[in-house]
Amino acid sequence: MKKLKRSSRLVEMTQYLLAHPHTLISLTAFAERYQSAKSSISEDLAIIKEVFEEEGIGQLHTLAGAAGGVKFKPMMPKETSLDIIKQVCETLQQPDRVLPGGYLYMTDMLGQPELLADVGKMFATAFADRPIDLIMTVETKGISLAYATAACMNIPVVIVRRDNKVTEGSAVSINYVSGSTKRIQTMSLARRALKEQSRVLIIDDFMKVGGTVQGMIDLLHEFNATVAGVGVFVESGAIESEERLLQDYVSLAKLTAIDLKTKQAEVVPGNYFST
Amino acid sequence: MKKLKRSSRLVEMTQYLLAHPHTLISLTAFAERYQSAKSSISEDLAIIKEVFEEEGIGQLHTLAGAAGGVKFKPMMPKETSLDIIKQVCETLQQPDRVLPGGYLYMTDMLGQPELLADVGKMFATAFADRPIDLIMTVETKGISLAYATAACMNIPVVIVRRDNKVTEGSAVSINYVSGSTKRIQTMSLARRALKEQSRVLIIDDFMKVGGTVQGMIDLLHEFNATVAGVGVFVESGAIESEERLLQDYVSLAKLTAIDLKTKQAEVVPGNYFST
């Protein structure tokens, strides 16, 4: 890269940090990249750090010393998150979203890139300080949320399949009981998709009793991997809490009631905002 | 937002533009956001434009006049793309990726956030000038690519299901013949997922004869929607070209041969690089 003026360097460094979240970049690497003194780089980083933190873009962690450097962690302030989730709740309460069987239509929202980026940032904030090697979800609707979170955290995603596809090689399958339908179902994961001892963040779009998430946790045990956290976009609160199979999870929104006659759902911010 | 110094404003504007690709932002909005004169904003944008274009981050289109503003289009130069795809080809040629049945294991690569962001940017570049309302893929392995592309283009994603899930409401289903296996399969899309007349970009991970993509095109016709383009990550070139069901598509890599005995695959850059 050719030597840049400070103003241009600030633009380039900003985009570089944003494109490499949760990655330690040494001051030396930056100094070489921009052919500048480390002292100038440090001054630039101080400016970027102030803007990122004041405007709620994320944290810039600087590590001093020979092995030092800088790491950008995308973070969203809780007030900003709550404003966005309140809008989500309003949208989810639109009457035409209540489907036969008492399901809530939210597939369209899980396809909106801006909302996904926001939600990914919320999960990245909620789990920013936990050591995580991998994000796991089960097909299909949680996949976009898993990738949005992964993009913020710079962590790969594995997708548990509801069948055993030949194109994945040998796989581990387990049976689990879907909490809502009480039916026995199968989920499977390619043997090579997950290393032993991995610390795994589970992300899903919807959780009622938690049977599907519990299935993923059981599957992790088969791989000698551990659960680093569970994040769900919407939880259903319309069940007794003792029915719930797991207690330690983060939800961004909560479906508290659904009236099939009036086609009215009630959705409120989730437990992420009550702690 | 409080009034910022120029250096801070450059950082903030850079992150704002990157977070809002393919979105027209008026100079007035920027001037108000930063409590600065439009002339200062224009100077800042000129600096950002120069860096973005010189460093291959994307294009900054400025529209003059009262309704004027600026639009950031993430773009990746072809040389950069080719370097990345050459590495992808090398990785895909690792012998342990050839699975029984002659399949190529690439699920792990489709879970890497950095590679996905790069590939998304390549598709966003390839289709930057076409009017597109929606990106479509079929579950499961193309989903991450579809979202990575959508994030660059600021376009929603719809996912075609291989079954008809009750949580989606009424759906349109079609039968199609998978070109490779010659089996009749079903795919379906929720009625409300796609508006009539939508211009749709189809993204998928792998294409051999093109049966699955052709199925998606047939499904689009059921919705009176049109195909704006087809992008596949890897195409299989190990078939006669007259067997291929469609000719107008962009591939980033091409599987030219697979030897089940030696477990050796040959993968080369796709047709995107030969035009």
From TrEMBL, chains A, B:
Record's superkingdom?
A: Bacteria
For the Bacterial purine repressor N-terminal domain, which residue ranges apply?
Answer: 5-74
Which parts of the sequence belong to the Phosphoribosyltransferase domain?
110-241
Keywords on record: DNA-binding, Transcription, Transcription regulation
Provide any one GO MF term from the record.
DNA binding
From the UniProt record, give one GO term of the biological process aspect.
Answer: negative regulation of DNA-templated transcription
Listed under subunit, the entry gives:
Homodimer.
Similarity field: Belongs to the purine/pyrimidine phosphoribosyltransferase family. PurR subfamily.
| Protein known as | Pur operon repressor
